[in-house]
Amino acid sequence: MSVSNDNLSVNPRLRRTLALVLAGGRGSRLKSLTDWHAKPAVPFAGKFRIIDFALSNCINSGIRRIGVLTQYKAHTLIQHIQRGWGFLRGEFNEFIELLPAQQRTDGENWYKGTADAVFQNLDIIRAHHPEFVLILAGDHVYKMDYGKMLAHHLAEGADVTVACIEVPLADASGFGVMAVDDADNVVRFDEKPAHPQPVPGKPDKALASMGIYIFNAQFLYDQLKIDSDQSDTENDFGKNIIPSLIGRHKVLAHRFQHSCVMHDGAREHYWRDVGTVDAYWEANIDLTTVTPSLNIYDDSWPIWTYQAQLPPAKFVFDSDTRRGMAVDSMVSGGCIISGAVVRRSLLYSNVRVNSYCLVEDSVVLPDCDIGRHARLQKCIVDQGCVIPPGLVAGEDPALDAKRFYRSESGITLITADMLKKLEG
């Protein structure tokens, strides 16, 4: 089904749309990368945070009334939004509001589920008088025109529209899995089923919810109230709200390919849940390839963020025994490659790689210092790590597993706490 964005009819509705970004989760599958901040605040692609993609999609789509719902270790996330997303103009009714868990309801609970997070802020949401409410997860990486999704919602007269994407059947148990009729009405919705149903005619694929919903505002209020009155609910959109609507209201599926923002020559409709160490490493390393799956150089759909004022990256020493160089890599501002070799790697801001080091197929987060003669292969180095001189990681699986975290795919995660234990 082809879905177009009719600017004449959709744009005024976009101004009456309120986006709510659910950004309170830890993301425990990222292991120690989320020990000190929520998953949406984890750095991505050299200079961004994961949440920047959902927020940039809103701005680029024409939605400039946004609430960000926070809970788990939210300080770095709040700080990032305050520093990088304060350019909207309140006098034009544009804003990004931070909505931390405040125990605003009689139960005095923290957010119990995604639906409860929205329910606890109903008084704030109502005060903005939206016609539509766009619910977003703050921990996925993708580029999407939400205006096209709203156009589809309006054209079909839906009560709620759920964005969906085809995923490998083997991975579908981690998603809400949907079945649709010929008109893309949702006829079944199972949250994280043990045995997901494949797409008809595609036995190796399942139709998965992306955690993106457009609700008619009053309809959302009504359903949240009904859910909150139930005793046997987890107060979650995927587990409770959406399944309860099937067969009773018009629940529409919106296929991601109709609103995905793609560049010329793109090979896929790019959407990533970078929620595991392996997925996070793979998505970052892909950006170092000649033609990555995600285009972050697209001026027509920019990704906005807070950017510290840093000096340019610097490469020094050029002799046969000590040459500062990086090949097939991304190197961010403030980095110094001092007589070291970096290959197929992504270095975030303020990383220093000292002489005689070798860094290959690795992701190094901000403010790290890699000591002389260190060798890192297929590693993720967490923010602020000081790698001791001569340390070798990524070459001996058994040794790495004793000292650090080693994933199923052989990625070694190194954190400052793990390095401190080595000192002891």
- Given helix and strand content, the structural type is alpha/beta
Q: Radius of gyration, Cα only, in angstroms?
A: 23 Å
CATH topology heading of the largest domain: Spore Coat Polysaccharide Biosynthesis Protein SpsA, Chain A
Query: Rough shape?
Result: globular
Number of strands: 29
Relative helix content: 10-25%
The CATH class of the largest domain, by name, is Alpha Beta
What about the largest sheet? 9 strands, mixed
Summed up, the helix count is: 11
Distance between the termini: 61 Å
- Uncertain segments are 1-8
How much beta, percentage-wise?
Answer: 25-35%
Average pLDDT confidence is: 94
Instruction: Tell me the count of domains.
Output: 2
Q: State the fourth-level CATH superfamily of the largest domain.
A: Spore Coat Polysaccharide Biosynthesis Protein SpsA, Chain A
CATH architecture of the largest domain: Alpha-Beta Complex
Oligomer: single chain
Structure description:
The protein contains 11 helices and 29 strands. The chain has 424 residues and is an alpha/beta fold. It folds into 2 domains: 5-288, Spore Coat Polysaccharide Biosynthesis Protein SpsA, Chain A, CATH 3.90.550.10; 314-423, Hexapeptide repeat proteins (UDP N-Acetylglucosamine Acyltransferase, domain 1). The strands form 6 sheets. Strands 1, 4, 5, 6, 8, 9, 10, 11 and 12 form a 9-stranded mixed β-sheet that branches. Strands 16-19-22-25-29-28 form a 6-stranded mixed β-sheet. A 5-stranded parallel β-sheet has the order 14-17-20-23-26, with no helix packed on it. The longest helix is centred in the middle third of the chain and has 12 residues, at 217-228. The termini are far apart. Mean pLDDT is 94; it is low at 1-8.
